[in-house]
């Protein structure tokens, strides 16, 4: 067989097949679709893509290489996921997360909770440059506080993710914020300055929505419930303010540009150390109740397996449980299957055919920016990785932007507005799967409330349609001549 690119309609077949399977899975299994059925759907779609690739001349070894190459890109994310699971368990045993919930209940008011959560996550994410690190640390605590206040978990997760991804976009420490201008051919400061034109209005609108929802949200939560939860937390844990040293150290490491994996690993280990120092009574009680255990075995359980602190209060019982590393295995399975599908679709030529067809639609300035945004979102759906959603459209459209006299800052901004922030809205994308796994909230539950992530692509299209701050290459030349 001679290797040829499949025609457009054929290239769309695996994607259409996947969408049909995913829709069927959700209708049958609901939120539980992420447990196993969506993984199988991705593998079946990858198998169909492989058959098409073979028919058009792509060797089996080449298809396998594509899947393996994609999996290699996902390995750092998979390691981070395991460490996030370990960190969640050790921070529960040490009392760090309970302390955050305890003090959060005393400080935060339900009316402004969503608004405040979004701002808190934005500040932490700007400081660290990591949306994943923000969600895995303060995000977990804020979700616990929101649940204790009986606020819908999708709303709370939406506020956390909106703030975290805003901060990630605007931080000079962020990997995607550095990647986008590098791919587009502009510098970091120009990119951030130009991106603020769409990003700041998007977050302000989001904050306003969260504020309006907060003041109109009907919750049965009352002061008696706060007092009861606070007393139970005090009885179960030694809520020493020194516990906050651990999250401060983790955030400090990330700010210092230490990679996420070692930073989270240090956080998990420090959590166990602080548990041995501050929660000796709790550990002794847990060891007695679990028969045949010891502090070492308990520590390993907290890091790696299902782990919970018993409570008679149903709200607290839900908050005081975690899956450790094992709780992340479904998410890891999903990411592996998604990356296999993306790798096969890349090697069989389907992605290239589809994105090339999209490029033909870009006849004007607005359609070019719209096509770039659509391509980034499409890559998030098919390649299942936000980095590919930036790199592939960036390389593909960079010459066209220059040919039409548009500054590369337009391209880098569009890649972030559409690529970075929409990745978390897709259940099988590395970001969507990760945040759903970390927070324990299904992507389908939280995505309608991720207002910042939903508004950002729309905002970039509005700016393009009305020719608002569309930077031209001539503008830079004129400025340098002046």
Topology, pairings included?
Blueprint: H1 8-11, H2 13-29, H3 37-55, H4 60-94, H5 96-107, H6 113-128, H7 131-148, H8 153-170, H9 175-184, H10 188-216, H11 223-236, H12 245-255, H13 260-278, H14 280-289, H15 295-304, E1 307-308, H16 314-319, E2 321-322, H17 329-347, H18 350-360, H19 365-382, H20 386-403, H21 408-420, H22 430-439, H23 443-446, H24 451-465, H25 473-481
Helix pairs in contact: 2-3, 3-17, 4-13, 4-15, 4-17, 4-22, 5-7, 5-11, 6-7, 6-8, 6-10, 7-8, 7-22, 8-10, 9-10, 9-20, 9-21, 10-21, 10-24, 12-13, 17-22, 18-19, 19-20, 19-21, 19-24, 20-21, 21-24
Characterization of the model:
This protein has 482 residues and is mainly α. It has 25 helices and two strands. It has helices spanning 8-11, 13-29, 37-55, 60-94, 96-107, 113-128, 131-148, 153-170, 175-184, 188-216, 223-236, 245-255, 260-278, 280-289, 295-304, 314-319, 329-347, 350-360, 365-382, 386-403, 408-420, 430-439, 443-446, 451-465, 473-481; strands at 307-308, 321-322. A two-stranded antiparallel ribbon has the order 1-2. Helix 4 (60-94) runs antiparallel to helix 17 (329-347). The radius of gyration is 23 Å and the shape is globular. It starts with 7 loop residues before the first helix and ends with a helix.
Number of beta strands: 2
Return the average pLDDT rounded to an integer. Answer: 87
Largest sheet: 2 strands, antiparallel
State the helical fraction. Answer: over 70%
Overall morphology = globular
Strand content is under 5%
Q: How are the strands of the largest sheet arranged?
A: 1-2
Count of separate DSSP helical elements: 25
